[in-house]
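hey m, so remember when u said the tokens were messed up on ur end? i reran from scratch. heres the input so u can diff it against urs
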Amino acid sequence: MGGMQGAMATLANGLVECGVSVDMYAIFRLEHFYPLNPAIQFSESPHAPNEYNIISRIVSIVRNIRKATIDSKAETVVVYGKFYSALTLLATLGLKKRVFISDRASPLYRDFWYVEMLTSLIYTFIKPAGIIAQTYISAAYQRKRFGRKVRIEVIPNAIRPIKRYECLRQNVVLAVGRFGDPLKGFERLIEAWGLVDAPDWILKFAGGSEAEEPSFGRRAHELGIYERIEFLGKVPDLDELYASSAIFVIPSRSEGFPNALAEAMTAGMCCVAFDFIAGPRDMIVSGENGIIVPEGNVQMLAESLQMLITTPAIRKKMAAGALKTSRRFERSVICKSILNFISTSENH
């Protein structure tokens, strides 16, 4: 599971549908959570993420990427993640491959010092053929790093096709994401929910269980709202939840690109987001196709939820606006944008 893994699986599937031959290499051996088109030639490292010490791990990653790239007949490589993009540039040095990179984390995210140092060192001497930025803020950060010599294009994530269900929307506020990551900000949503007067509404968390984050359940008990919260754990198919819930909330502190928000908009949901970096301002025009709440303002988040709960007409209007906006995240649209960027970059 994970936003980066989901985004890459969706892109690979979309490229195949566009008639492109795709080889996919997974840098680590992980759970195969996302389905891949059978036409994709998939391979993966024999190693789990935390095998070996850091130096041996980096050497192994570079060696394995180089072998996978040599084995592939692909002329173009697209790699996700800042550190792994840098390692891929190093691994493909001297090979006739054009490497396009995409940092998937928030522009504010900083890794371990040695990771940042090695990444900066590689980027200083080896340049990619181009950079795919998910948001305009991310593009600005990349421009500071690479200057004008490397082409940068803002292309949001492709969103997988959302299954449509014929069902009535229930009195449910939905939040989606893994637990155990403080950047997701779910505790802020619990605090806001404690300020909302809506006894016949339920707040549902999809992606994490109470056992994974016991503090959420304890705080809900303290606020007297435990009976109005459900922790669903991992949900393999979110589409029915999207279809049956009335409001989607993303209370994150930081994101690279909020895939769950884009999916909820694609499902025609009324959406509320904190004004975090990065993504909401690329997707939501507040008051038209959703609501953006000042970053960290729990009181205003609660007030926004209260207003939407008590005003179905506004929910319906914003949901319609979200659905209209979401067409630019369609897989075919994004794949064509990426292929066009790769093609036009050949002339620079």
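this time it looks ok to me. The longest helix spans residues 54-71. if urs says something different then somethings off w ur setup not the seq
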